[in-house]
Fold:
Amino acid sequence: MLNAHLVPPSKWVARSQGSIICLVCGIAGYVGERNAVDVVFDELVKLEYRGYDSAGVAFIEGTGIKVLKKAGRLSELGKLLGETSPTSRSAIAHSRWATHGGPTDVNAHPHLDASGNLSLIHNGIIENYLDLKDGLLQRGHKFLSQTDTEVAAHLIGEEYEKGGTLEEALIRAAKQLRGAYSLVLLSAIEPEKIVAYRKTSPLVVGIGKGENLLASDVPALLPYTREVLVLEDDTMVVLTKDSVRYLSGDGRELPVRPIYIEWDVARAERGGYEHFMRKEIHEQPDVVRQCLAGRIDESGQVRLSGVFSDNVWNEIDRVNIIACGTAYHAGLLGKHLFEKLLRLPTDVYFSSEFRYGDPVLSPKSLAIFVSQSGETADTLAALKLCKARRIRTLGIVNVVGSSIARECDRTLLTQAGPEISVASTKAYTAQVILLTLLALHIAQVQEAPGLRIADWTEELLALPNLIQEALAHEDQVIQVAELIKDMPLCFFLGRGPDASVAYEGALKMKELSYIPTEESPAGEMKHGPLALVQSGVVAVFGATEMATLDKVVSNMKEIQAREGTVVAITSDETGTVRKAADHTITMMPSRLEFLNSVLSIIPMQMLSYHVARLLGRDIDHPRNLAKSVTVE
Ligand code: M6R
Structure:
């Protein structure tokens, strides 16, 4: 075996912006002596824990390519395969989490090119697919699905027809594609090879003897091999049964340096992390990239497809954001944006209060429903109430095809990928980013005075790197966690957007560690909660808003004067906060203050995670809680 060592998760993540983190869709590929169709189906089964809405397989049949695909569970695809029991020495397969186009048989992968000789599976998003599709339509191409993947298949097919090998065609086509994606191809012309390209979306190769495999995530490979090549960004592989060629994005040969995976399957499913929650926290740079993908054009303008037409945005006189738990907290940040950027009056409601509260609703208002699962019973009931009152509804949802996604007039998908840990982390960040994009979209339509959209989008695009930097403070966070783990009470405080984030920080702490928390705007402390402060109490402050920094520092002093300990999470580089607090975590700042508040949730998520870990809590399944609350 080569390179018999275990790479710690942090190194894997740091190496190429989340190299083994798999956000969406399952990818499988096999070439070798076994029945490839069985192997790739088995690989998909191993990836099933991540969630999907349809699945499909492409394999060689005679001199052509055969595709079988089906919406729904893998067992549906299994039934199709069972009818003919196909065999092939090479195959690719995919389980899809829909982004472009609903979860239907036709939209499922693989997709074929115009000749029908080339099949493609794909993870991620091709941002410029509509422009490419226009060009292909003009050149006579016809499309069966609504997917960006089919557009890419036709484009690669066109390049392939110009001559050369499949990998050469892929290199030429990839130069025309914008976005974050991975692509895997099987061709009837070169049936004994699989070619794949990685641009941000993860891909791993399993190196066997007389066989080679491909997957989006390590667990799929483990029954066959533990020798794994993790593709770097902008690289490709050409697999035959006896060889693995590793190439740069422009076709230069690269050394194949596999690593040896020692994890058991359960750990591999968590990308090598101890818990899904930690994996999901570390996925957030990629989650933000994925959420932004295709939604900001080259001139820095926001392009949200599938929302209301411009005249509707000009008519709306009020926004109500309705949600539960973490999603409600994302809504609180939405209120700041809508009111500050658009001067649009906005209320945020708990769904459970809204549904029984007989709310006063303007006929020109918009109701926004924020939900990771799209199935939360109270939020769904609130949505039904709005529909009965004929109020316009918009969903911000992670799970495509979920009840809320289906029932809202319009739905925007957060594209955060499946969130498995009960405690929500990456979904929150994606919800906030999508609310930001929505506010910017409306601002563009309304030509909001004094707002430079391109400044905002530039900073949004820079956010993944700032999140990565914030994640690098984990050692400091662990020191603070050691302090908090024995405390009887933990405050979460801030002002403005920092107060909204404090609510979410506190929810994470209580649900994971079971340590009681008090959360409030810092200015409210002296109106009551201050009575709880004494020696042994910790207050975590979000301190990113410069306009109120002096006030926040005064609030810190109030805590310390009563022998409480102050932990500050800040982007203040002047040293003011560091001098005032007992412990400080300083994050690299965005030029947009609002995004600094968003960033401050990253240390708070890590803090609650590590406190819970030190206390030996059941991190992915906190007591008394469920991931999706589908009953009242
Ligand atoms: O699926 P939803 O976003 O509608 O769920 C709402 C809440 O139940 C959820 O955000 C909950 O508060 C989190 N899992 C807590 O971490």
In short: Confidence is low (pLDDT under 50) at residues 1-22. Residues 9-268 form a domain with the Glutamine Phosphoribosylpyrophosphate, subunit 1, domain 1 fold (CATH 3.60.20.10). The chain has three domains: 9-268, 273-470, 472-623.
